[in-house]
Amino acid sequence: MSSQAGNRQTRPVVEHADGTTSKTPTRDGRPLLNFKSPRASQPKQHLADMTMDERIDAVKEMGLPAFRAKQISTHYFSHYQTDVESMTDLPKDLRADLQERFFPHLLTEVRRLRTANGDTIKFLWRLYDGALVESVLMRYRNRVTLCVSSQCGCGMNCPFCATGQQGLTRNMSAAEIVEQVIRANQVIAAGELAPAPTSDMPAEGETALGAESDEDQGETSEATVDESGTSTSATGPERVSNIVFMGMGEPLANYKRVMNAVRRFVEPAPQGLGMSARRITISTVGLVPGINKLAAEDIPVTFALSLHAPDDELRDEMIPVNTRWKADEAIDAAYNYYQVTGRRVSIEYALIKDMNDHPWRAELLAKKLNARGRGWVHVNPIPLNPTPGSVWTASEPEVADEFVRRLIDQGIPTTIRDTRGSDIDGACGQLAAAD
Asked: Is there a binding annotation on residue 3?
């Protein structure tokens, strides 16, 4: 165990037999977990909440012809327009009604932080009810990745995570999730993200967020700049190419709305954004029923399990949901995802100094993964981006290197994850907590 075990400043909240809660150094209570959103209203229904058939029904209810649904969908999903007044092919006398029915205001930008070289932009958004969420836009040579939030806060209570310490306010709607991508595409179109570099930003041996599997390396869309200065890709104007559900919230605890958002991402235009499902990563701390449900969806997203410890003794404290579904159960569910979908799984592992970065834990992790088979998994260790006021901090570089070496020696494909945004409170939840 950690040499700092006696003085950790941040611990999981536990519930005691008398109903009280505390951040106690003893395990005499159960970790506080929240799988269901508190009773809270959702925003008004938005175009992105609806299927195309539902949009057609909605315009017909307004007394309009069905083709108007396709028109407004094209403006939103192909041109990233959210103001109906800019949709000049719509009659002026219809625009106010269409704005109110299909485009209620979802996100208000509160703050934007940009790294010195402009390759990473972090957004703080205020939702209609005042809740704050974050998303992070990241430029790489051959991809643009957006890390999106799926909940306002999080109910998983992980003590090293800024969001986990905020608790759960409510689930986000499908449209609130989609709107993060639309707004990011507007930023890219305005030239506010640094242009593509001539070489990959991650150092050799590292992997970029949103590029978890080398199966997807052939699906690149390298950006260029045309004569007018507009950034473009092989398929048209440049846009977000990869989405990772690694922002605020536990995606599988908001399963229905997250999957509705995923459908909007992968449906062909103008139904949706027409993205590749393989370029969408859904990460979970280990909600086993949700993992198995995701495997049965027949949507080949990339799946990532945030494991962070191979042994239950440590994982019970680091990932409180481990008290419900143990590490081996989560790994079994991840392996089942691979068997059902044929998609290689990512294991996310935050390397935390003196906590989970011991060589023997690397070897135990390799043993457990190899016991299920070979070629089904890839491990992505990432040095922890520490949250303010906590002694949980990143592993020393030489310790991280040894951890990776032990995994590779056991035949486990492993690459240190590229870290981004440490100078702009890059860990999700830090910006919202500070506002």
From this structure: no
Q: Does the annotation place 158 within a ligand binding site?
A: yes
> What is residue 227's three-state secondary structure?
coil
6 is in an annotated binding site: no
Q: Report how far residue 56's alpha carbon sits from residue 53's, in angstroms, rounded to the nearest whole number.
A: 5
**Do residues 286 and 322 make contact, with C-beta atoms less than 8 angstroms apart?**
yes
Tokens encoding 101? 């029915």
Is 152 marked as a binding-site residue? Answer: no
DSSP annotation of 352: B
Active site (annotated) includes residue 152? no
CA-to-CA distance for 197 and 339, rounded, in angstroms? 37
Q: Give all domains of the chain, ordered by start, each with its CATH number.
A: 47-103 (1.10.150.530), 107-199+237-424 (3.20.20.70)
Candidate list 238, 317, 348, 428, residue with the active-site label:
428
Catalytic-role residue among 134, 176, 179, 212: 134
pTM over 0.85: yes
pLDDT of residue 420: 64
Cβ neighbours for 373, distance < 8 A, ≥ 6 positions apart:
335
Question: Which is more confidently placed, 83 or 27?
Answer: 83
Residue 147 is among the residues annotated as catalytic for this protein: no
